[in-house]
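Hey L., structure's done. Input below.
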Amino acid sequence: MSPYYCALRARVGTELLLIPAVAAVVRDDQGRVLIQRSQHGVWSLPAGAIEPGESPAQAAAREVYEETGLTVRPERVLGVFGGPQYRWTYPNGDRVEGVVTVFECVRVAGALIESNDETAILRWFRIGEIPALAIPYPGEVLRGEGPAAHFEWNEAWSSCSV
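Output:
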């Protein structure tokens, strides 16, 4: 946990924090998606919190490098997600709800790590073989389908009076 989030936790304890976050869809030459199993035993995309002063794309590249050893370049936003299904309670009781920007990333350099303090296992999966993920991203996002980023929208939100 970064010093910024440690300082917040010192003030609020395990209370729910709304966290800006990123996740990355990284594919190999065969179109398989890189999925990690964390040291907590859950499967996920490489992902994490955005730090103060960091852009979302920069955070995505940093998180992928820290968790996988790969250097990537974010190419496009696949989706922006939030709400109760993006809540998570860590084993220590800390609760978070992410507002997650999911990027499609292209591998630039590097080699997969074996493991570290965040990552237990890294594996490439075909879309139909991806294990249940801790965060339920829509299949269209994992497949990279669609002309624009996926997000929830309600026309009533366009009104300034809402």
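The mean pLDDT is 90. The longest strand covers residues 95-110.

-- N.
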